[in-house]
Amino acid sequence: MNQHHESTGPVDEQQITLRGPAELADALPYLMGFHPSDSVVMVALHGGRGRFGGRLRLGIPQASREWPSVAEQLAECLIKGSERRGGRPDAIVVFLCQDPAEGENGNQVMERLRPLAQNLRTACGALDVPVLEALCISGGHYWSYCCPDERCCPAEGSRMSMPGTSVMAAAAAYAGIQVRGTLREMEARLAPLDASAVVMEQQRALDAAGAELIPKILDEAGRGDVARGTLDLVRRLMKRLKEAPMSTPSASDTDDDRLITHDEAAAVILGLQDRETRDRAAEWMEGPEAGFALRLWRALARRCVTPYEEHAAAPLTLAGWVSWSTGDEPGARVALGLALRADPHYTFAQLLHEACNQGLDPETLRRCLRGERGPRAAERGRATERTGRPREERRARHRSVRPTTGRRTKPPRGPVRPGPTSSRRRSAQTPPNRRGSRSGR
After folding, report:
1. Residue 51: what are its φ and ψ, rounded to 5°?
2. Do the bridges between strand 51-59 and strand 158-159 make them parallel or antiparallel, or are there none, so unpaired?
3. Which range, 160-174, 175-189, 219-233, 239-253, is most confident?
4. Do the Cβ atoms of 130 and 95 come closer than 8 Å?
5. What are the beta bridge partners of residue 305?
6. End-to-end CA distance of the chain
7. Helix axes 220-243, 196-217, angle to 10 degrees
8. Residue 426: its pLDDT value, please?
């Protein structure tokens, strides 16, 4: 039915032809890199042979009254995004994926979601792009909302093929592409810890770190010290993760959590709420260090316990950025989606999520970050040549010297500049465990 050039791996060299709803339903996990659950998935098709293009995913809104407006937004987002990439879609394929609730069967799920499928078809048609196929996948079966032929699409649904037996599965196995479980399993790796004792200890650590660091972040003079301290701690934690013995995949997250204390996690989480510090942290994006940075950002996202869930937007966005930069688009979409769930207005996550969904090349952003990093590295080198020690080390040594008399040290000469924005000063009145305490996005 359609010809697909997989956009995230060696399958680019192959042309895989999918015929009919059965093969489309089986191909969905390979298109996304995971089994989407409780999701709307839309995929753009291009050309007369239906080459797969841009795709997007959104959790199915629980309130059916939201479906018409959500359908319009999704249709516009996919079509306009495809146009910006250089090609308007010729058609769209829609997937509605939701497991039956308790006491419900797949056929009832299909009927319950039928209005949403119709909303999506209408919204795409209003933009002059037809929905070629709309499938509901539930309880191991699939249904077509478009095919009226009972011989191929019976009312009771058709059973999904056995995993690994389709043409798409064979091509993906040949190319080394793996489906990494379900969306729920991927999100669980980034979800806040829920053990009560751990949550209470982490809350106390975040409260203490907020009381200490947020007034400094909101002050121009202390902001640089917090940034340097945060980034130094990040380097130490990444080194600790690097030196730890290798764990099995199932135990790796638990082991990483044990390697990071509550106070260390709290200090970095609060430090990353400063936009410039977060942007500096984004420079750990490639090479061997990227994997350790990704492990750290995931671990910090898990430490953003109640009531600090919104603070997870920073580490989740960094996790999404590193995943995208290293070629893991499915992991990037999941992390960035969770970042926007934590804070829908987090600008960095919005931009990365849109760029990733549009299939843009992350190298453009990597070049920008390398350009920021280069002058700083050159300056550190010049400072080391002049003194024999890096500037950061000299500053640390200077800060470690304490006056031996009871006299108060003199403030630095020169005028003190005001903070970067008035919003930072207003938010200084906010308690440290409030969401409004973050200073940048």
Report:
1. -70, 130
2. unpaired
3. 219-233
4. no
5. none
6. 44
7. 140
8. 38
